[in-house]
Amino acid sequence: MDLPTLPTNTLDSLDNTDTYVAPNNKAFLADSDVPNTSVLNNAELAQSTAENSSQKIDPNAIILAEALTDKAISWQIHNCKIIKKTVTQDLPLPFLYHYDSLDDAVKKTHPLTPTLLTQFNTSMTASQAAKLIGIEEALLSRPWHVKVIGSLVVFSEALQLAVRLHWTNTGKETQQIYTKNEADAITIAFKDWQFFGRVDVLYKNDKQTLISIDEQSRSTEEPLTESLLTIDASSDYQQLLNTHALAVIVRLEADKAELPWFDKAILERIE
Predict the structure, then answer these.
(1) Which of 13-27, 125-139, 178-192, 252-266 has the lowest mean pLDDT?
(2) Radius of gyration of the chain (CA)
(3) For the chain, how far is it from start to end, CA to CA, in angstroms?
(4) Alpha carbons 111 and 133: distance in angstroms, whole number
């Protein structure tokens, strides 16, 4: 059944309940692990962007980044999962990190020597660092190395729009957390989680235009040149161009505190 066209000014009237309940309409959502889920490549999307850059924005169009951050829309989270998880105390660190973790009293009895200074940027385990300094390993503080990467799908049944996003606790190889137990380390690491990477869009409403605007490449003289992308209705996920993916992520990060369903879903998954 075709969904009615929803002008932008009607979005405020949408109910914002049951934001964490997965839908029964499985045919609408395409899971990231389904083999036949296709993604348009960047060349195809670049051509689409060029063709649409000279067009005016439809006043009834859905603007992707604005819709995703609209609290009046009944957004729900589906398939929030962990893709990769590293939580360990056994990874090597530059020697300077090990030495800096020592108490001042230990540093006084084991001051830096020319030999130790030459090892400052050498990666090593706590055991190796302790042997190099000439102390017991227990005197060194061993941080937890935390790196979790995950994905989720946020969707609106009314808009027939789903967006697959990726999240992590750090853009570094790992985040070092100095705490006693693993659970506390993960909690601390995810106090400031972030979206990153690719963004995939699944849009099934052929009655209303969906567009993405890359504000960073938008100029005042030619506001639509290379900044407007029309996302056609499709039964498959479409990967956004990197610039448009970044524009969506920047907007989500700016408004993240006002979008608690993301935080709730991710924190429940990592616990």
Answers:
(1) 13-27
(2) 24
(3) 39
(4) 9
Instruction: State the Cα angle at 141 between 138 and 147, rounded to 5°.
Output: 130
With 90 as the cut, is the pLDDT of residue 83 above it? yes
**Using a CB cutoff of 8 Å and minimum separation of 24, what contacts does 172-176 make?**
172/147, 173/147, 174/86, 174/91, 174/145, 174/146, 174/147, 175/145, 175/146, 175/147, 176/93, 176/97, 176/143, 176/144, 176/145, 176/146
CA distance 228 to 56: 9
Residue 199 vs residues 74, 86, 221: alpha-carbon distances, Å? 20, 23, 28
Q: Note whether 137 and 127 are within 8 A (CB).
A: yes
Lookup: tokens for 207? 């009655």
Whether the CB-CB separation of 75 and 156 falls below 8 Å is answered with yes
Cα–Cα distance, 121 to 150 (Å, whole number)? 31
d(CA 89, CA 140): 12
Q: Which amino acid is at 187?
A: T
Calculate the dihedral angle through the C-alpha atoms of 111, 114, 117, 122, rounding to the nearest 10 degrees: -120
Q: What is the pLDDT of residue 59?
A: 81
CA distance 107 to 102: 6
